[in-house]
Amino acid sequence: MRYSPLLTDLYELTMLAGYLEQGMHERPAVFDLFFRQTPYKGGYAVFAGLESALCYLEELRFGAEDLGYLDELKMFRPDFLTYLEGFRFKGSVTAPPEGCAVFPREPLLTIEGRLAEAQFVETALLNIINFQTLVATKAARISRVAGAATVLEFGLRRAQGPDGGLSEARAAYVGGVRSTSNVLAGKTFGIPVMGTHAHSWIMAFPDELTAFRRYAEIFPDRCVLLIDTYDTLKSGLPNALTVAAELKASGHALAGVRIDSGDLAYLSRQTRAVLDAAGFQGVKIVASNELDEYVIESIRAEGGRVDIYGVGTRLATCAGEGGGALGGVYKLVRIGDEPKLKLTSDVSKATIPDRKRVLRAVAPDGSFIQDVLTLDGEEIAPGDLVFDPANPLQKVHIPSGAQFIEVRSRVMEHGARCAPAPSLEDSADRCAQELQRLPDGCHRFVNPHVYKVSISAGLNKLRLKLLTEVQRMISS
Fold first, then answer.
1. CA–CA separation, 101 and 20 (whole Å)
2. 346-405, pLDDT tens digit by residue?
3. CA 423, CA 189: separation in Å to the nearest integer?
4. What pLDDT sits at residue 2?
5. CATH class of the 10-136+323-475 domain in this structure
6. Domain boundaries, the chain
7. How far apart are CA 26 and CA 19, in angstroms?
8. What is the pLDDT of residues 429-452, one digit of tens each?
9. Residue 186: exposure state from Cβ atoms within 10 A (0-12, 13-18, ≥19)
10. CA–CA separation, 101 vs 47, rounded Å?
11. Which of 51, 49, 56 is nearest to 4 (CA)?
């Protein structure tokens, strides 16, 4: 998918023009993309959107129509538009792999290059990474709570526009929802497509049984019947049993029944009992209707017998407390040879300066303990003191026996990828494996364990030094 260079906020262009005017556009710069609060008030986030972001960076260029529109705005000088004709991203990107568990304050992307290119890509990268990471996190929460059941994504009709529907299906797959009703997503990303039929199919025929029979005739080996158009237990289920028997007699099998309304826990229990008693233990029960992780958790707690959860609106729109938007930000952390720090009246929101590594401390059993941000080239070891980035007075020792793994790697250099992109399947497998290694409390929906992200002694020293300098400048 190619993104237009005009997918940006106007101020990126005005700053770019200003940097060119001031002769600053070639200065080396480093920016970090990160978030400050975990979405859904949960214990983790799942990183997604990297492949889309790298595609955007690789293909970034202004065409004749783009330049013509900017000229029509009567804001920019001809020499600036001429400059844009040859504008390309030639910088580097450091990032975790998609599917990686990530946490507040640690950089997801680090963009390094000329000030002009590193600044300009801010808006598009935030748009891509914020949305797909939010969706992948929601999908991971839903997939985990569904247990052995399958989760089907079918939120296209409620998604945030056509591109939102496509990106959402991709990110949901990374998070563990490995099928979709979105045919374009299936074609574009190779995601398995699944679907049933609407209530309108039933209503278009003289009666429910006729509608079921006609559908089964057309799709005898992939027939899932929607049984709640009139009455799930008194009408839909008995008619589905009739069709199931007819399919069996002709050498086929009813694949499933779907319930889209009512008490899904109760109805799925009753449906399972009737199907099993009739000898149709292999028929799957699909449930849908405004599902999310909380509803699915409730259905399972009440003994629901659902094999496939169809999740639409609340996944596609990232609904839920603490959802809606990830809130990722993009901040300058170094320009030229100078580390940079942003400071507001809330010291806890001060940025973390300079180039950084993100190291993950891992226990001997493979479980994750905590993440530590260090200066580029700084070494740390078990037993070292590390500091809370929001409150430097809070500090802890890295546990003995811990080993460190690099969370991120260089994925783009000089505007070109360093390696082929992993498959979506690999990213989804990574997500599942990483979530297994988190502390159990991270998966709680209420008051989850707060996974610790600390900064090293060297980084803490640099940060305090810059804080002092900024405060001195403000007071002078």
1. 38
2. 766 789 999 999 999 999 999 999 999 999 999 999 999 999 998 878 999 999 999 999
3. 9
4. 82
5. alpha beta
6. 10-136+323-475, 195-303
7. 9
8. 999 999 999 999 999 999 999 999
9. middle
10. 6
11. 56
